[in-house]
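S., here's the first fold you wanted:
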Amino acid sequence: MGNKFYTPDGFNDQFPGICGFKRELESKLRNLFLLNGYEEIETPGVEYFDVYKEFVAEEMLYKFTDGNGRLLCNRYDGTIPAVRFCAGRNDQYPVRYSYIENMFRAGKSGGGKLSGFTQGGIELLGASGTKSDAEVLAIAIKSALEIGITDLQVSIGQVKFYKGLMRQLGIGQEEQIKIKNAIANRDTVTLEKLDISKEDKETLQLLAESGGTYDTIDMMLPRVTDEDAKEALGNLREILDIMGNYGFLKYVSVDLSLIESLDYYTGMVFKGYTYEVGFPIISGGRYDDVAKSFGKDIEAVGFSISLTLAITALIRQEKYIPAKGASVIVGGNYEAASATAESLRAEGTPVILDTTGMDEEALENYAKEKGIETVMYMDGGNV
């Protein structure tokens, strides 16, 4: 039979209980996004390869050609298509978009070990400043809490700070890559071997070891002379202030080693984690330069939450409640059973109507096997 009974590597079927649970979480996110003024858009699962080629390594994309030989790819994320959509319109800025869609990644990144997974997210386009950054971060935290992720830790960093610090230290482009990797991996040994002053090494090591809140900013500020880097630290301080107003400061820490793609993100970046899952379930930040690929200059900030990973976490944290199917099964006399089933459905009760002619004992056994609470066997017009 070959592979007929299996899914491709990195892709999974969803069982009914999990699928229903997932739909419930999606509904909660849709409502949350709408309450915050984010209108849902739906982009195709297929894009032209050119849409992604500046932002995603080619080997990470599922690629194929159409009937005219044009190179296409599956949707890798929700952000790039949202920017493409926005750039092709003439809406009044700022605009607020939301989405809940399936993503496809050949390199199995972003969805844990999965190549196909579901993300929800928002994009705030045409808005700059700390208040916009903080709004998106706050909604990211609200999203996790809304779907039941209460053990949450969100690390926030600043790409602009890192770039300013590299400029201050006079470090060239090639050396920056080595430092970026060392900081991301908290590799203090590599930092110690750099041909820079002792004080500068200490600064970089502090960068790799950061993980507080205001204390991290206060520790780093005296060491910074670059104006952009100072401004970036100010941005993080203001974000902490706003998170405090929301009551979300307990979920947030400053991690200056959090350096996402320097070609993609331009300011604040953040990742959210919960226990029992070894990958971030939330990812986001400011990406002011992405729209330039589409011939527009649109400041932007957004985030995504992996529903697939969030559900994995909820199951492992024993917070998973399977979605219920039918609570009643009706059998016996078909005409009477059909009328009863329709009457119950009109009241909002999920009902299965037996169409196979099971006797009463078989109906009872079937209901027990399927976890159906109520069995109604109709004998003529009576139960």
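And the second, which I think is the more interesting of the pair:
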Amino acid sequence: MAEQVKTIAVLTSGGDAPGMNAAIRAVVRTALARGLKVKGIERGYSGLINEEIVDMYPHSVSDIIQRGGTILGTARCPEFVEPEVQKQAAEICRKYEIDGLVVIGGDGSFRGAQALARQGINTVGLPGTIDLDIACTDYTIGFDTAVNTAMEAIDKVRDTSSSHERCSIIEVMGRHAGFIALWCGIANGAEDILLPERYDYNEQAIVNNIIEKRKLGKKHHIIINAEGIGHSNSMAKRIEAATGMETRATILGHMQRGGNPTCKDRYYASIMGAYAVDLLLSGKTNRAVGFKNGEIIDFDIEDALAMKKDISEYAFEIAKLLSI
């Protein structure tokens, strides 16, 4: 199998994440150093089925390690769930003599890689998502940058919230996973943290907490709200009406996806990218790369997708204790 790998391709799929460029760079340069040809697929699976495929050289990835986003671009491709589209994509890989494919993205991207593996294309998935919600790994490319971006923004909102003696609801990303909200809640010293995994929609409990803390002399109140709960603006109006405390909502949105990746995101993305190439060279396919207990490891994608991940109950309880 290893002797058959002569050309590999790389694509980024789903939501962009800081550090994806570092992973692309590592894939390209490791593969070239190993004597392989490399192709870049633009705009994810959509670009694959539209044959947006370019040759990659060492200079193709010069001066990109520090840049956010992805130089290959990314796009949603809902039609890729169709078996006929998957078959078409596999035929395009064969047309371009692509022996192995590195896919950088989240769970949906991994499912696409799994589908191509079933069509006979050697695939390896790298966990690229700011949400930290891939269960097979303790680290996902982009989370460290995103959570630091959110933390710094919340610090700034907290300054003005304190000056005006306001309640601030700050909405961070995380549709189904509350890792950014939990980490920022602890790091920013929030009084309340609303997580998709734990929130019971008891808004009166938040109101009571604000009133109680005001009685104790608290001048402002910070609520970190995950995107999966949302409705921050309407929540702010209800809380202000119930407490009499001026309340404002700030939605950080897609700024969390951008910016220069941190050292951690650049380092781990680079190591993971190189590891993916070596997995393909060793004859492996349908693998998901992860980081566990301080080591880079890999799983069968089917096993990786079957794993479940939850926030730390201990960390959640400590967050509540520290907000007293």
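Why I say that: The longest strand covers residues 7-12. The chain has eleven helices and eleven strands.

Talk tomorrow,
H.
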